[in-house]
Design brief:
Arc Repressor Mutant, subunit A; 3 domains; 7 strands; 58% helix; alpha+beta; four-stranded antiparallel β-sheet; 8% strand; single chain; three-stranded antiparallel β-sheet
Amino acid sequence: MEDDMTELAKPSGYRALSPAELENERLVQEYMRLKERPTRRALQKVLKDVRAGFQPALPRTAWQLLDYLVELSHDRDWQDGLIIVWPSNGRLMDFLGCGERSVQLLLRALTNANLITHRDNNDRRRKGFRDAETGRILDAYGIDLRPLAARAEELTKLAESIQKDRIEARRLRSQVGALGARLLEFIRMAKTHAPHPAWEIYANEVETAQKPASGKRIPLEVLRAAKSALTKLESRLRQRLNEALKPCRTDNPTHRQPEKDSPSGAVRFTHKTTTNPPSSSEESVALSRSGVGGSAEIHPESSDQETQAEPMMSWSKAYAHLEKYKITPRLVFEACPSLIELDERGMTADTANWDDLHALANQSRSVMGISPKAWNTLIEVLGPVPATVAMAVLTEKGARSVAGTAPYIANIAGYVWWFARTAQNEGFLDIGPKVWGLIENR
């Protein structure tokens, strides 16, 4: 062991060997024993990624100097085993645009970081000779890059770790921004529909939680803490929103309790046409909880068949479309978790039914700031169940757009009117593929 240390401690020229230089000499010997040596280009790529997480931290000009030294070497040097460059201090001063003392300090920093060492001549001048035909170094004195080459595997792992952290930081930053924007939008709608001083307090909490994550190069721990704080705040805010904005089920003119003469599990919705007064033209539609499309039975209660023909035909096509794509309450439950989050009674995929989904759709309409007129128009054109499916899809797409996993929807109310116009023109709304698309992209 003493012989090995003596060999490493042999002086090189007139330069005193510090602990850092001893470690560099050990790295040189380690590099010379490598069977597979790194290439210059591969190491240059790694150096671009390790700067942020390298310890000890080096100034930006030190990394620029190291890049330049690697660039001065030849590809063959990294395979032959002698990776030495011999630029003068004057050349380095011109490249960096600084004085000689600054160059000396930067070289010392790279030496202490175990990235370079020095192979000195007796006159302390850098010089080297290459074979004229092969370009192979015959003899050289100058800056030795073999410590850097010996640490290639270590630096590669560090670069991969830093890259993973960067990806996670971008994801967390996006999630924090989207979550904060969603909460502020909820608060804005709450201020409009249910004014209360508490909303301003929630808004201040959101801004306070977001602030630490708003700068550049934020540590992962800070971003994780910001996301955790906003997630907890979202839970509290949703509960408060549900209490403040939850509509009464009996106030919904499109929803009534099951009647005694309805089949088991059926729910009765009443639709009023727009061409006749409510007292003279009314039709009832009985909907099975488990069926769609053909399971709807329309019972005209007026003798005016002409005024009812158009809405009946529109509803029939809409329900047939749902039946074609096998749209069931269970499928809507699985495709639209953002809608189900509004439920407070523990709905499951097995207990999901059109009655409860319709109530949740109406509640979501209120939370998203969609007017009752737009919602009732959609029901009038499509029928209660297709309208419920459309609102569930819109709720899920809106949540995903705010989370940054889907295109941003700037005007959700406009989407509802577009749904209604499309259904009125086509006779149905092509909503089935959208539900299955949500399932596939979960």
